[in-house]
Amino acid sequence: MDKKEFTISEVIDSIGISSHTWVVFVLLAFAMIFDGYDFMIVNSTNLFVAHTFWPNDANPGALMGSLTTWGLLGMVLGGAVGGIMSDKIGRKKTLIAAVMFYGLFTLPQAFANDLGFFAAFRLIAGFGVGSCIPVVTTVFSESMPSKQRGIFVTFGMAFMVVGWVLAGLIANPICNAATPLLGDFTNQVTYVMADGGTATMYANWRLCYLIGAIPLLYGVVLIFAMHETPHWYANSGNKEMACKRLSQIEQATRHTSHEYDPALLIVPPKPAKTGPNVLFSSKFIVATCAIWAAYFVGQFCVYGMNAWIPTWFVGLGYSQADSVALQTWNNVAAIASNICVGFVSDKVGRKRNLAFSWLFCIVAIILCSIFVAPNNMGLCIALMLLFGFALNYAITAVQPLMPESYPTAIRNTGTSWCQAFARFGGSASSIVLGGIAGMAFFQTATGATNWSTVVLVLIVPFALGFVCTVLFVKETAGKSMDQLAAEEEKLGASERDGNTRFIIMLIIVAILAVLCIACPLIVPNWAKQPYALPLMAIGLLLPFVYFFVFGGAQLAKNKAARK
Asked: Which CATH number does the domain housing residue 498 bear?
């Protein structure tokens, strides 16, 4: 390669899996573990936080669901801003800032005594969490050989779920401890139970949020141990540093290296524009519809169910400790699915794998609805393992498609905006499912929520995910980033005509936020209103109308252009 032109992808593919690969993998894995812990600790402690904030309300409903929502809203903002930052200032700087940010602002949540204080710092910490995830996905995609890219992207995401599991394993004994673990700081709370009686606990959940500040120290480790990606250097015009990093990677692996000539480095052309509106241009609108639709469905179902699984099983008569344990088993299965999905995706292809996963989810949720029962812990563990595997298999199957859908100049913008949009689904889901649970149709004769009926609602988004996958997903498995960019160039579609479609999507997101987040929290007795369910359904379905209209129209044009 010394005397001929070359690309970043060609060099990385020629080196293959190396010591550099594993260093990057380990560094990103720990970032995702801390990230996953920070998110899931709310779902693992929400019953205890709710007893502290609303001791006289046995069923806070949407308010309790909102404990998860505030962090997700912060993740929306963080993902949108962090993606643009990463494409501008680099992957390394953005990741370090994100990790230290969510560590710093998780700490004050331990001192919260009401929803306002908790929500404010949850929102701010979520900004860092939202910035972290897409940067990790992008660094994996830019650092790994093309043939193994899907495996590493999805395997890396498994460590976020490791953080989820750790959150449950840490929270369960801490929150259920029979004594105050930090003296007066973990004060005694007397709260009303569903049967009208009272019980006491200690607010030991606060310790879980003190533990959540550990990423502050890990950010220091990243400052010294992490390097910028050659792809970002090259795309930013610094070919010299890109070539230097390639030489360093090769030296670390082979103990010998080439001196790569910057003049011979081929860098794919940048898009004419690099803002988020480019994602909605004719050139990228089909890819955007594909990954936005699929990831929206995944986020809605994963975060909605994780927020309410403990409540579901408490309602069936299981103890709070057993209910959190069942949620943890659900997340243990997610680790296994995240490891498996990358291997399958690289073997059978992204599209076929993702389409199958939605059908798998439909089967799993029906089985859970039918067979979940009181006084049968073994069966419930098995069902949670099945559902956790299926649902997380589906959402992780989308992960490789995100960075593969866009060129380097907008790769992290595209990845992060997809994740930010999808988190509106996650933000809405815990509130929407909580609102649905309060509706008469989903309650038993005694007024308790029939969660086995509520979870069947998830069949609708699963079906939409399947349809959008079949229509819009393009196969990208095994192709280098340069090949994928070249295929888009051949279509000759415009990069400058996305403004109107972008504005329409922003309006739809605003409608979704009002109908599915603001109204349930602001309007008194929202779940009891006859118009509540139709309005929330409109808010959730509008994005899919957008995908079918604009994505479908451009898909038809692309097919005509290939003929």
From this structure: 1.20.1250.20
- The total of other beta-carbon atoms located within 10 Å of residue 188's CB is 10
Q: Are residues 231 and 320 in the same domain?
A: no
Reported as a single tens digit per residue, the pLDDT across 166-189 is 998 899 899 999 999 999 899 999
Cα atoms in the Cβ-side hemisphere of radius 13 Å centred on 552: 9
Q: Fill in the amino acid letter for 279.
A: L
CA separation for the pair 320, 175 (Å, rounded): 10
Strand partners, 191: 199
**Least confident interval from 89-93, 441-445, 545-549:** 441-445
Cα–Cα distance measured from residue 507 to residue 511, given in angstroms and rounded to the nearest whole number: 6
- Split into its structural domains, the chain has a count of 2
Buried b / exposed e over 324-350, threshold 16 CB at 10 Å, is bbbbbbbbbbbbbbbbbbbebbbeebb
For tokens 């500040």, what's the residue? 213
CA distance 42 to 30: 19
Q: Which one, of 128, 111, 126, 31, lies nearest residue 69 by Cα?
A: 126
244 with 300, same domain? no
pLDDT digits (tens, 9 = 90+) for 37-46: 998 898 888 8
Sign, CA torsion 511/517/519/520: positive
Closest to 71 in 3D by CA, of 125, 112, 115: 125
Tell whether 284 and 218 lie within a shared domain. Answer: no
C-alpha to C-alpha distance for 383 and 396, rounded to whole angstroms:
20
